Amino acid sequence: MSRSSFTAAELYAGTSAPSRGRLRLATPAWIAVAAALYLSILGIVSIGTTEPALATRQAIFLAVGIAAASLATIVPPQGLRAASWFLLALSLALLVFVLLPFIPKSIVTPRNGARAWINLGIVDFQPSELAKIAYILCVAQWLSLRGSPRTLRSLLVPILLLLVPVGLIVLEPDLGSALLFFPTLVAMLVAAGARWRHLLVAGALAVSSVPIAYAYGLQPYQRARIDAIVAQVKGDTRFERDIGLQGWRAMRLTGAGGVVGNGEDHARALVVFNALPEEHNDMIFAVVGCRFGLLGGLSVLAASTLYLMAALAVAIDRRDGFSKLVAVGIGALLFSQMAVNIGMTIGLLPITGVTLPFVSYGGSSLTASWALTGILVAIGIRPPLGGDKNPFESRDPLQGRSPFDDNRAIE
User: Fold this and answer.
1) Deepest of 190, 216, 241, 407, by most Cβ within 10 A of its Cβ?
2) What would the pLDDT profile of 348-375 be if each residue is shown by its tens digit?
């Protein structure tokens, strides 16, 4: 069968394999691996500034994460497609499990009022991390099979796939993790050829619902955090010793590092003296800034941006829609998570409890981030599937079509 005889639906779904060969070691996915390794080591060093014992545990988590990435690398895109819906069902079942009120606290231990972790004995597991992976795979699977979402109706299933896990995560409550699904979906829809005006309509509806969500959908402490960030922007310091204490101290410690940072002992003294809550976890970027200064903070931004660029480069190199969309989803998710974490640390966003990928302490977050990196490598090292037509190419300016529109043979 010649390459030109494959239809668009076959190529974008990844059901055909016109291109076979050995694994390709030369892939931009390794750039993402290098960036992830740098951020992980920086995280261990930063955690060790105030919590040496936790830094040792984080090093163990890193080994587990790299092992998870290695296992993910073995799985080809066809295997990821086959496992996508099972992983989503499993993650949804676990999200429901943590919400059941009769589950003993020894198994589901609330933290800061949130039921988001399952105690596995040696480590706590966060089902929302698995849900992020499953969500990316399922949306990519759906869009690659159904074609470019060129109508408002075609956006319904991706949005429903979004609302189910997001709704369960919000009930935990974990608003920060829930919010990360939205930019991930938008990025994947754009990559799949969705019309901008449809996305703008959906965005306008989402924005219009914000006042209602603020008034009736948020917990009192969540509304207070939004009030605190608004007051902070206005120069109002009345929340500085209340709900805004964590944010104010994080900003001060970030700035205390200057350009090149402080010595380990001095940085430890500053962090301990200021009693920054969650300094090893949600607020780890403040420790990075205090310990390594502006240069350290910029290195986090640079490494995260490099990871995103590598993921997009992998996507551009693919010839099947599923692999492309998975790569885009991985890059968008982790970059959005980085942006939200840094934004809340330096006072640009309300504090939502989002961790800094690869840097913050935590086995679930680190393992999930490395598993996503392994999936990216699994896609990148395999020969491209499909023909010469690229699903990311611009639409025909005369017909206004996306490459996903129909089943015409690719010439």
Assistant:
1) 190
2) 888 887 899 999 998 899 999 999 999 9
Q: Buried b vs exposed e over 184-209: b needs ≥16 C-beta within 10 Å?
A: bbbbbbebbbbbeebbeebeeeeeee
DSSP 34: H
Encoding tokens for residue 279? 């300094």
Q: Angle, to 10 degrees, between the axis of helix 181-191 and the axis of helix 156-171?
A: 170
Q: Where are the strands (E) in 42-191, listed by range?
A: 118-119, 124-125
Buried b / exposed e across 106-121, counting CB within 10 Å, b at 16+? Answer: eebeeeeebbbbbeee
Q: How far apart are CA 244 and CA 221, in angstroms?
A: 11
Location of structure tokens 């509806």: 205
* pLDDT on residue 391: 52
Average pLDDT, the chain: 83
Helices 29-47, 52-74: crossing angle, 10 deg rounding: 160
Question: What ranges do the domains of the chain cover?
Answer: 3-380
* Helices 363-380 and 284-317: angle between axes, nearest 10 degrees: 20
Q: Which helix (H) or strand (E) holds 90?
A: helix 77-99
| Phi, psi dihedrals of residue 401, rounded to the nearest 5° | -100, 155
Q: Across the strands, what pairs with 124?
A: 119
